[in-house]
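Worked Example 4.2. Consider the chain below.
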Amino acid sequence: MIEIDVQKQLGNFRIDLQFKSASKRITILSGPSGSGKTSLIFLIAGLLKPDSGKIVVNNQILFDSCNRIDIPVHKRKCGCVFQDGKLFPHLNVQNNLLFGVKNSKHAQLENITSLLGISHLLKRMPTHLSGGEKQRVALGRALLMKPEILLMDEPLASLDADRKNELLPYISSLPETFGIPVVYVTHSQKEILLLGDHLVRIKNGKVESYGQTIGEIKISGRSNSQDYTVSVMEGYPESYDPKLGIQKIRFSGGILFLILKNPISKFPVKIGINSMDVAISLEKPKDISVQNIFQGSIIEIESVEQFFSLITVDIGVLLKALITKASNERLCLKVGMTVFAMVKTVSLNY
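Applying the procedure from the previous section yields the following structure tokens:
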């Protein structure tokens, strides 16, 4: 269990955060830039000292202002991986991995390098590594320290899409493989859906919302004006057409069609549908390229900002659609109406 209750004044900015998260899970921290996510990582690691509060990881109290407990950084057993892997340029991969490890013949070296797919890189220098390889080495170094918790601050942000996809399976397996909780900072909808068990949204130094990454979640971009709503649902893979790259996913609302290079091997899976990618029709469309069409009834219409409406449609699960107020008025949408929600296959996030 992770228990966070911390207060910290940083100039004119105040952090006042409280939440709990289960062990052996990935907890996602999301929110606009400057909201306090990285500061929280530093507070947990001991790189910043809270003014007051309490931090508990796996029943070990790392900080407790009331009882004057403040475990030093080097005794907190926090593994940290940041956006830049920060490898030592004068050391090869093996020496980077073992830097700070008491036993230079660490028994876990072979297991971890094999798990992360970096066994063949041990004699290579950092200048000859790709961005994805550097991050895998940084992750391996953190794991070799035998941490009680892994703290990851946008570790994939500087990588291209292929390198990100290369690393996601490794990160996803960490809690189960090593039996440790992970706190993971990201703005990426894909990373939230693929990795997150719980999502903590932070805004202006406070927890705005907290919950599981199933149902409706709000994801923040890098500024306050970029928040958007995503409908998240669980499904089970059915047939896969390798010629067309079409994967069928069965969920409570029917069948979803995804485009994937390879079939999904694990289940259940989480699918995210951005509200901006959902269109509404009063009649079932014909002769249209969109494959994902779902009949449902409107259960809520909410005004969003000045010119938009957020429509909640019950299709067996709740699906959110963000449309203009002009479209809402033109269609004369009302709660209780039967409508058809359409989602382009290419817009789906898995």
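The helical segments are 37-45, 93-98, 109-115, 131-144, 161-172, 174-178, 189-195, 325-331. The mean pLDDT is 89. Compare this with Example 4.1 before moving on.
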